[in-house]
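Exercise 7. Predict the structure of adenine phosphoribosyltransferase from Loxia leucoptera.
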Amino acid sequence: MDLCHVPATREKGWYLALMAPNVKGPNYAWLDPSRLYCHPQGLQDCVADLLQPFQGDAIDMVAGIDAMGFILGAAAAATLRKGFLAIRKAGHLCVPTEAQPYSDYSGRQKLMEIRTDAISPGLRILLVDQWVETGGTMRAAIELVERLGGVVAGVAAICMESSEGGKWIQERYKCSHCVPPRLQPRFDQHQ
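Solution. The predicted structure, encoded as tokens:
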């Protein structure tokens, strides 16, 4: 799809066709959204679709998860006129942090960090990432926010797979994603 082309009819998720399939092997996510982020209307529509379920909800800050979640999270924060908090992979913050171990979509053990001075008790945080595949990364972010006394106001991602971890998150938190129900089985099967 041309990065300047905007379809005459823009149904929810039309921009998903902008994502590129993985050609590098199993240690990479199966779809790459960076091309979607390059498309001005695609990015705007994606953010609007992610935020639609949260219209009127109390949200104090948006937090994006390292690294692709930074793009969507910052765009969502700008749209909502809220601050943005980066939840980082360990070793990138030079300030006091809380850390949480997790396993990512490839099964690798990692450590995630959050600065300790950004969240005060009761602060309502919208968590944003590009993808929730196994749920490990998002669950670690949830645990960090809640450990610091924050409240998870919602979870938003381009896709939330119907994995055990994805279901755990969807059962406990208000969630938003961009995949239409008719396409969800294809995303769950990585087709």
